[in-house]
Amino acid sequence: MKALKGNKLTEITQLEFLDLIKKFFRIEIDFGTGDGRFIYKNALNNLTTLYIGIDTNEKQMMKYSREIQRKKLNNALLILGSLELLPKELEGFADTVYIHFPWGSLLKAITQPTKSDLKKLSDLLKNDGVMKIVLGYNEKFEANEINRLNLPELDSNYIKENYTWEKAAQQTLDAYQKLFMH
Predict the structure, then answer these.
(1) Among 59-68, 120-129, 163-172, where is mean pLDDT lowest?
(2) 101-130, pLDDT tens digit by residue?
């Protein structure tokens, strides 16, 4: 898998990855990490957890990749990848997978998931792993993106009817109800 270290893209083998994860109590993945700030900030505050950010935009992750290298944080990793090109090395290790305010193809995969999308996302988790998804699209603010991706209106009925991955559906429904029903 390809990891960003400072300004350079390097290859991490499965054996190197397995050696790395042995050093940590937990593994948390931020899928669609953007600039990597979430990974950097959390890695600074919790050295016993390995934080892995995954994003397609190498340039966007550069700033925090350099900060991670400068601070010598061995518990932060920025990976080049997407749902379509997800490194197999990551499968089955995450205690938590975060997806914060996805957009583009990731947003579409979350709001209109195929069985393949759900499998790829669930495969990242350990058996007792948790996925936390925060969505933030609204007709008032993002009408163009909603129309471009043909995104559905999210409500509890939509989530119940369209998520075939029971664990993810229940967690998404619970989160939705906490955010919008109270």
Answers:
(1) 163-172
(2) 887 888 888 888 888 888 888 899 998 899
Residue 79's identity, in one-letter code, is I
The domains of the chain are located at: 2-180
Tell me the pairing of strands 8-11 and 2-5: antiparallel
CATH classification (class only), 2-180: alpha beta
